[in-house]
Design goal:
Blueprint lengths: L2 H6 L1 H12 L18 H16 L4 H11 L10 E2 L2 E2 H10 L1 H30 L10 H35 L5
Antiparallel strand pairs: 1-2
Helix pairs in contact: 2-4, 4-5, 6-7
The structure holds iron/sulfur cluster (SF4).
Iron/sulfur cluster (SF4) binds next to α3 and α4.
């Protein structure tokens, strides 16, 4: 793999690592977010809990890199914890690494865009095919070809859904971490 290819697949590698071993897997994501109008004392207690959880997480570095690439955290809004950092802390790291992160985010977007384009073309092409009943094998072989086509269509649709879900999760944390 070239260094360019490695750069373009970095996000997927990071996300897979976090999905596999996140310490917060299966936990309520609300633990990491301040609720609307939550008093300071309550939030500070939960924030400390979340930071403690992250401190022992083996995926902390990957989680931080994803959070930075996602643009999580704002300098003037103490309302989340990710990878053991508060929103203002994440924003400060993002500013300090702005040039590197801009290149990384561009690579992420290129990769996803190209994958989605390619998968969509494959899906449309596959959907336009008709299992050929005039080919050898009779009705049973035709039925098997139709079943194989359905399986390919489902697989392609699932891959497209996975990329789109990952994009949404990046903005809304629909899955853990
Ligand atoms: S938020 Fe990130 S660092 Fe914290 S427990 Fe979850 S995966 Fe680990």
């Amino acid at each position: 793999m070239t260094s360019t290819q490695a750069r373009h697949t970095r996000r997927a590698v990071l996300q897979a690592a976090v999905d596999a071993d996140a310490r917060c897997a299966g936990m309520d994501p609300d633990l990491f977010f301040r609720a609307d109008d939550e008093p300071d004392t309550d939030w500070h207690t939960r924030r400390a809990q979340a930071i403690r959880l992250c401190t022992g997480c083996p995926m902390r570095a990957a989680c931080e890199e994803l959070a930075l690439r996602n643009g999580d955290g704002e300098l003037d809004a103490d309302e989340l914890v990710r990878a053991g950092l508060t929103g203002p802390e994440l924003a400060a790291v993002r500013s300090a690494q702005a040039v590197r992160l801009a290149a990384a985010v561009d690579a992420d977007r290129d990769t996803e865009g190209r994958q989605l384009d390619q998968l969509t073309v494959e899906l449309v092409t596959e959907a336009g095919k008709t299992p050929d009943s005039s080919r050898n094998g009779g009705p049973r072989a035709t039925a098997l070809r139709a079943a194989a086509q359905t399986h390919r269509l489902r697989t392609l649709a699932a891959q497209i859904r996975q990329i789109r879900t990952a994009r949404r999760a990046r903005n809304g944390w629909e899955v853990a971490a």
